[in-house]
Amino acid sequence: MTQSDNNWTTIGRLSDLVVGSGVGARYRDRQVAVFLIPELDDRVLVVDNYCPISGVNIIARGIVGDIQGEPVVATPLYKKHFSLLDGRCIEDDSHQLATYAVRVDGDEVQVAESAEGTGAAA
Amino acid sequence: MSQQNLIVIGNGMVGHHFLEQLAESGQAANFSVTVLGEERNIAYDRVHLSEYFQGKTADDLAFSTLEQYAEWGFDLRLNTRATSIDRQARTLTLDTGETLAYDKLVLATGSYPFVPPIPGNDREDCLVYRTIDDLDAIREAASRSNTGVVVGGGLLGLEAANALRELDLDTAVVEFAPRLMPVQVDEPGGNLLREKIEDLGVQVLTGRATQRIEDGNGARHQMVFQDDKLLETDMIVFSAGIRPRDELAREADLAMGERGGVVINDHCETSDPNILAIGEVALWNESIFGLVGPGYQMAKAALDTLTGGDRLFQGADMSTKLKLLGVDVGAIGDAHGDQNPGARFFRYTDEIRGEYRKLVVSGDGKQLLGAMLVGDNSYYDTLLQYASNGLELPDSPESLILPASEGGAPALGVDALPETAGICSCHNVSKGDIVQCVQEGASLGEVKTMTKATTGCGGCAGQVKEIVDHEMAALGIEVDNSVCEHFAYTRQELEHIIRVEGIHDFHALLKNHGKGLGCDICKPAVASILASTWNDYVLNPEHVGLQDTNDTFLANMQKDGTFSVVPRVAGGEITPDKLITLGEVAKEFQLYTKITGGQRVDLFGAKLNDLPAIWERLVDAGFETGHAYGKALRTVKSCVGSTWCRYGVQDSVQLAIDLEHRYKGIRAPHKIKFGVSGCTRECAEAQSKDFGVIATENGWNLYVAGNGGMRPRHADLLAQDLDTDTLIRTIDRFMMLYIRTADRLQRTARWLENLEGGLDYVYDVVVNDSLGIAEDLDNQMARLVENYQCEWKTTLEDPEKLKRFRQMINEDGDDPYVVTVEERGQPRPATDAEKLERIPAVTV
Ligand code: SRM
Ligand SMILES: Cc1cc2nc3c(=O)[nH]c(=O)nc-3n(C[C@H](O)[C@H](O)[C@H](O)COP(=O)(O)OP(=O)(O)OC[C@H]3O[C@@H](n4cnc5c(N)ncnc54)[C@H](O)[C@@H]3O)c2cc1C
Ligand code: SF4
Ligand code: FES
Description:
The structure holds two protein chains of two kinds.
Chain A: E1 2-3, E2 9-13, E3 22-27, E4 30-37, E5 43-48, E6 50-51, E7 56-57, E8 63-67, E9 70-74, E10 81-83, E11 99-105, E12 108-113, E13 120-121
Antiparallel strand pairs in A: 1-2, 2-12, 3-4, 4-5, 5-11, 5-13, 6-7, 8-9, 9-10, 11-12
Chain B: E1 4-9, H1 13-25, E2 31-36, H2 58-61, H3 66-72, E3 75-77, E4 82-86, E5 91-94, E6 99-101, E7 104-107, E8 111-113, E9 126-128, H4 132-142, E10 147-151, H5 155-166, E11 170-174, H6 187-199, E12 203-205, E13 210-215, E14 221-225, E15 230-233, E16 235-238, E17 242-244, H7 247-251, E18 262-264, E19 275-277, E20 282-284, E21 287-288, H8 292-307, E22 320-324, E23 327-333, E24 344-350, E25 355-361, E26 368-374, H9 380-389, E27 422-424, E28 429-430, H10 431-439, H11 444-451, H12 461-474, H13 491-501, H14 506-513, H15 522-534, H16 541-544, H17 549-552, E29 556-557, E30 563-565, H18 576-588, E31 592-595, E32 601-606, H19 611-620, E33 633-638, H20 652-663, E34 672-677, E35 691-696, E36 699-704, E37 716-722, H21 724-741, H22 748-754, H23 758-766, H24 774-786, H25 791-796, H26 799-802, E38 820-823, E39 826-829, H27 832-838
Helix pairs in contact in B: 1-8, 10-11, 10-12, 13-15, 21-24
């Protein structure tokens, strides 16, 4: 793990990501899910990997898509949808994923805590 | 009101309908009901009796169950015959010797097949065609016979002839009249029918009176005709008309018709108002009605007579539409034109196609009085509407029977029909009744349950659907079949676009035909279509994001995020060495092992990171992926078959293995399962599978569209006694047609149920190549079979692909939150409480 700037943590390289889908990564004491979406100008989006519905670290394994234009990931076990922009569960707003700030520096994908949501152009 | 003793004699179609109506009327509590049925079976669908030979069981044909009768509170006594009625004492004697008292009696004893009084008609294997027991006897006799003769060339006779033909007998029909079906068709029609039936290899002898039946020379019997000509045959089925079973009524001195039948009035009362008669035993206005529709109408009238309602029986339409030995025959109203002096005729004959149509119109050319059709019944619905609703005919009525290419009129649209138009004659349902249901929000299925339309003879199904569709369109109810918000197409339409435009990836499809990013509905659906069209490797970069999680990791994800590993065990056959490997792998990676319902071994609890190493071991030992994760062939369940089993007649294991290897890996709208049994004992439960194969002495019987699971469905027999090549070709085509036309996640059972034309249509397409696409289907299947790859083998060869099999890209090792506990000597996922104990620092 390399640390750059004050808060930014490098969690992997662009070549580690899977186009049109997600991978898991360690960020500090938790696991995050990192998505690379070609249809959104190759945007990288990062949310928690822990699915509060099933209690398992599997969000990265879900299918990415949109509901009425909002990018979402479908949870692989029980097929609920979480917004990739603000992390809320579309079907049940008592569930929420944390979202993370992302930036791409060269080919390094870097993550930081975020209050505003997630997303960076790769 | 105190309860009246009501006894119904006869538990056939009409008697049952009467009871069902009574139960639904809410008036059943006013009666103490006893039902006597001479047959051992509870009331069943006699109209579809012949399907008993096509694989339907007595249970399939039954209208009800003993439990249902019990729930209704009716005392049903099967295997029990009423032997006499004492009208003075109002009692009934049974063959058990018991005597029952009645206040009201309903005779629903139906009719019996008439056997002409020919010497020798009681010889062995001289049978009739009316009950399930009769059919059992015919099947048994046929198994010992090579040739069979049906005496009687009417509707039922031809149906019996078809049955004999399907039982593999050389079949002949002997008719006393100068032509076949003398009641329904005239001479030109009869000649045409004869030609068509002879083309099927059934011998037709008309104008023949049998004098006697005696010992044959080559066969069991010989029939001697009036001109001393002879016909040798092993068995005979009499189907020379029906006679009312009126013996009880006759002995009780009720008013009878000259040629039999219990006389009834419009209330269905006999000459004794305490005794009613309904169905084929009843004679109304000097007519017996040998169809179920009029019987049902009598049942309703009789019910009203007993319960103070006002429905009457005032005659019924005897129009019929049938397919006999694959030949369409229809007769409407006064089809011969002999009941209306001054009637005029139009006739159309096409000797090439084998079609004949006749119109009987009133002298002024304005009304249709009757019609006759041979060869093509598509004209029937329109003609029936003109006749039964008295619609005024167009200026040139002949246009109604001309083919469209020769100026024929288009079929009468349902919107042209008045609300009062009768649509279902069996259940007396009008267009208005159907329209009303739709306006109340009913779907097609609900219309059928609410009105019962289509559940009698089924002849009205096409029109009912048309009216429902039309009415829904009129109400602006659109049936949206789009896959999802990203594609305004059905799966079938997407399949078509992909195949015709040669599209190879989701991105291109979305750009040209869809919108947005796609979603978890359309992506896997398109992935499946792409896979079954081109059979590319599912983890190619352009496909990987489309796959359901299970396909992405080529394993099934479990509730704790670990995976199950299911190697293919073709046909359920496995060597000891391979079993040992499975055990070793399970031990090494600490996997839970279980024998599945599909005759193979499932290894549960594999961590994402371990999947490649596990498969490395398995592939080395000669295993391939079992596609437990894919919408693809799962397993071909086998029984041990002729190799070991004393009853086996074919090598079911070999066939199961061959089938499994042929179809493995092919992606379909849903999973596909097979079963292969080595004899009729059916230990592989093949009839509950998408494709079921059962060995016969001569080859294989192929069953299709069975299902276990949430809504089980017994498979339908598609073809019999196939050799292995024909079997495989037939499966190829059926499967390809399914892949091309089914909805997403629709298994073969639901697909076939929803397919217009059903099994007959599919048979026509895959066996007779009626659409001319068989070659195309064959080629497409050949390509899929050729392009098979073990996805795990391919994946292991590509380090790029293996990247994905990591819980975290920046850290090796497992997901620390996956915890197992030992139970019964094997690991299982920890419960939430157990997890808290074992992972002290769970931060979420
Ligand atoms: C492992 C097994 C149970 C067992 O312990 O024996 C099993 C396990 C599952 N079945 Fe099954 N079925 C298994 C045999 C069956 C059978 C019996 C058979 O095949 O003879 C049936 C009924 C027969 C049939 O399919 O018609 C069966 C009918 C279903 C259904 C209902 C399908 C339906 O049409 O109604 C589902 C749900 C679905 O597919 O939508 C299902 C779904 C599932 C899923 C995939 C549920 C899920 O989404 O997680 C299970 C995952 C298994 C895994 O992770 O590996 N499973 N399942 C069996 C695996 C057989 C194999 O070797 O591949
Ligand atoms: C092969 C076949 C195909 C047919 N196809 C068509 C078709 O396509 N369309 C159509 O409209 N009709 C068709 N029919 C005719 C239709 O089946 C009959 O019209 C209908 O079954 C008449 O009903 P029912 O109740 O009057 O008589 P049944 O159904 O014959 O029932 C009478 C019952 O009463 C029992 N019974 C008689 N006497 C006694 C007694 N003393 N005590 C106790 N029980 C007694 C009999 O055993 C029988 O079970 C077909 C018939 C057959 C055989
Ligand atoms: S029956 Fe239900 S619980 Fe059992 S394996 Fe099948 S899907 Fe799972
Ligand atoms: S006409 Fe027989 S079911 Fe409708």
